[in-house]
């Protein structure tokens, strides 16, 4: 049997040192040029800083002017109450009713505002209620405002309600 001999690879030859690490030659040097600094000219700063004054805690009207409408009304009301001769506490009852109604109206407005603010914070509910209101308005206008006869009836009802409230 003939035996075959496998060829033996040739030994690796090392490349010369010059070829292993070639040197790169650049046309320009990469060194940054030093910056030339111009001398700074010292100029005096001309800034005025205003001095703050203390703000008043409450706005006070000058001596010649009268206070605003609500205070003026309250002053007039107190003067009239002081000038009247009271026979009994029953004479103060109408004024007390008026003040109680004003206080209740203020409380009702606060509660309504707080409720509407809370409803508006719920996602989608505020927008949904606006849409419902718009649909109701359009429905009312379609039923009452587009036809002349219906418009005349609506205006007559409004006039009648106004007469009833005034008289």
Sequence-ordered SSE layout with sheet pairings:
Layout: H1 17-20, H2 69-83, H3 93-121, H4 125-144, H5 148-166
Task: Please summarize what this structure is.
This protein is mostly helical and 167 residues long. The chain has five helices and no strands.
Shape: elongated
Number of helices: 5
Question: In angstroms, what separates the terminal alpha carbons?
Answer: 140 Å
Helix share of residues?
40-55%
The main pleated sheet reads as: none
Radius of gyration: 47 Å
Mean pLDDT: 76
Summarize the helix and strand pattern as letters. HHHHH
Low-confidence stretches: none
Total strands: the figure is 0
Classification by helices and strands: mainly alpha
Strand content: under 5%
Descriptive labels:
167 residues; 0% strand; mainly alpha; 52% helix; 5 helices
Written overview of the protein:
The structure is a single chain. The protein has helices at 17-20, 69-83, 93-121, 125-144, 148-166. The N and C termini lie far apart (140 Å). The longest helix has 29 residues, at 93-121. The mean pLDDT is 76. The chain has 167 residues and is mainly alpha-helical. It is elongated and about 140 Å long. Helix content is 52%, strand content 0%. It has five helices and no strands.
């Amino acid at each position: 049997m003939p035996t075959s001999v496998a060829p033996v690879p040739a030994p690796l030859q090392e490349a010369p040192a010059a070829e292993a690490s070639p040197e790169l030659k650049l046309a320009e040097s990469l060194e940054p040029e030093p910056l030339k600094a111009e001398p700074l000219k010292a100029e005096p700063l001309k800034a005025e800083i205003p001095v703050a004054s203390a703000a008043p805690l409450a706005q006070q009207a000058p001596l010649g002017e009268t206070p605003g409408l609500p205070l003026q009304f309250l002053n007039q009301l107190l003067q009239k109450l002081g000038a009247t001769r009271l026979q009994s506490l029953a004479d103060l009852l109408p004024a007390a009713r008026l003040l109680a109604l004003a206080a209740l109206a203020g409380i009702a407005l606060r509660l309504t505002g707080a409720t509407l603010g809370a409803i508006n914070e719920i996602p989608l509910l505020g927008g949904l209620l606006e849409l419902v209101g718009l649909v109701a308005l359009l429905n009312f206008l379609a039923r009452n405002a587009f036809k002349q006869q219906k418009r005349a009836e609506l205006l007559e009802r409004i006039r009648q309600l106004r007469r009833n409230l005034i008289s």
